[in-house]
Amino acid sequence: MVSGSVTRTLKRRALTTVGLTALLAWGGAFSALAGEAPVLAEKVQAGTLPPLEERLPKDPLVVAPVDEVGEYGGTWRSAMVGGSDDGWILRTVSYENLMRWSPDWTEVVPNVAGSVDVNDDATLFTFHLREGMKWSDGAPFTADDVKFWYEDLFLNKEFSPTPTEPFINSDGSPAKFRMIDDTTFEFEFANPKGLFLQYLATARPLDIATVRFPRHYLEKFHPKYNPDIQKEIDAAGQSNWVGLMVNKSNYWTNTEVPTINAWDFTQGYGSGSATQAIAERNPYYWKVDTEGNQLPYIDTRFFNVLSDPQVLVTKTLAGEIDFQDRSLATPANKPVLYQGQQQGGYEFFTETPASPNYIVMMLNLNHKDPEKREIFQNRDFRIGLSYAMDRQELLDVVWLGQGEIAQTSVMPGSVYYNEQLAKQYTEYDLDKANEYLDKVLPNKDSSGMRLGPDGKPFAITYAYSAANPVFGDALELVAAQWRKAGIAMTPTPLDRTLIQTRQDAGELEGVAWERGGGAGQEVVLDPRWWFPANNDSFYWAPAWTAYYLGANPETSQVKPEAPPPAIQKQMDLYNELQAEPDFDKQVELMNEILQIAADEFWTMGVAWQANGYGVKKTNFHNVPESMPASWIYPTPAPTNPEQYYIGKN
């Protein structure tokens, strides 16, 4: 075993993306301690904080700065929109998984784990933690913390009713966990798990959870370790210990829970009336730069909590935002932001898209209204809507002509690209639209609007995030286009929290969304658009998704239903793919899934995205000129925000 690496004897291509990063160093022997932030040095001098050599692990992770060794100090100002915009926190604070993506997104590399060994058939994964690594309160971080999460939370039927990927075997049973010693543990699967390390590098909550639960702090909120747990439940105003544990383990709302992140929240972010959140540097952070200086460089993270994304534009123009893309970097905002660069003292960086479309338009194929369910499940209806969409007008008006007309699909150049999936039904043709829609809703009122089977006016409500006004602009235009084909559609802006609530309950009728899945390994790791694969597929197939995820029909908000044969075939193929360690075979299986998606036409799109952008102040350094734009990546986290720094110019 080589420290800071992944070792294996398996030579199949399935695991060739898991290895050492091309950076200068990602671990290895560490011999020199150079520096620490002045605010921490003062505490060491005052005797209120141990010296640096006692705070760092024996083998800290060495991060090569993008451009140069940085300067300590400063406050990074950014913003979140609404009370549940925690994705920005995940992307810039808390991407500290066992494994992580390399900055160029070409491989998976060790992170919290100093190294990992994989056996020949990818069924046994042995992780080696960094000796001497600590939580933000100075307590040791060990394999016992991972054991606590896995055995006492993940396998607890109350806390986690149904074991889920990536910690399950092909039959749905959980992987075996063994703690070898304080720095070593294993996950063993009954079948090959060719995607396991890739999953551990993603931004999904479960993949981060492995290292997010400090046992020394949280075990008092677990009935197994606290016979007086009811006192804690009552004191926290919770109804049961599960709610208590969720509340106490949330690092961005509970400022008392220790973390391993670069910054630790001192003023939490919640769904209340708070207008800001603050995180300060973690004195026990376990990464250093190439000269041995402890990271992060920046002292403080300040998050404005805004109710209107337009305020974010105003703050950026006024020079009050240091680094931001989320909720800001829209095509509509680009002209005004471009003009305001000198005034605001900022500049652009490039983001290359991995999304399968600017906007994914989905109908709830498991609608609770039997009539609408039957209509939405009729492929002719979806084809008719697609022909009624003038994508060129949408592209010109909403996205300023930037992009290429396409359905929700994998982008060209990928081994998963499917021409049929990408280009079918994309031409604007009202005659064809009416031909297909007449098969499903032939009756109209005197104004030409279509009537449902019950003789009443037929209408669709499309939800979208109020934090993304571009979607509102697009849907208003789509509504006008569809009206020409006799379809009434109403765009409805909702807070992300409400969208999530309705999604979980299967209550969304139509929804417009945008995330990754259109490039690289995202296609395989997050196939939410192609079949009901994960929780995000609840947008368009909640009952079938619940079925695939093994939801309990007695307790699940959405009652699981067996899917039609085409989707069942996709589910079987994906199960086979996840158990397949050979990369070429994985590609073959995924392409079969995509071909079924093309034939069935589950969701619609408008166009592939042009390159995106982000904004950073001119004195905000060590940011790459270009980075992938992706949720799985998740932008900008793998570019190592801990090595960003604020300079004098």
From TrEMBL:
What is the predominant subcellular site recorded for this chain?
periplasm
As for subcellular location, the record says: Periplasm
Record-linked Gene3D superfamilies: Dipeptide-binding Protein, Domain 3, Periplasmic binding protein-like II
Entry's Gene Ontology molecular function annotations = peptide transmembrane transporter activity
Transmembrane region(s):
none
Would you name any one GO CC term? ATP-binding cassette (ABC) transporter complex
Q: Which domain of life is it from?
A: Bacteria
Q: Report the InterPro entries cross-referenced here.
A: SBP_5, SBP_5_dom
GO BP terms? peptide transport
The UniProt record lists the Solute-binding protein family domain at 107-518
Which Pfam families does the record match to this protein? SBP_bac_5 (PF00496)
Q: Per the similarity annotation, which family is this?
A: Belongs to the bacterial solute-binding protein 5 family.
Name of the featured protein: Solute-binding protein family 5 domain-containing protein
What organism does this protein naturally occur in? Martelella endophytica
The uppermost taxa in this organism's lineage are: Bacteria, Pseudomonadati, Pseudomonadota, Alphaproteobacteria, Hyphomicrobiales
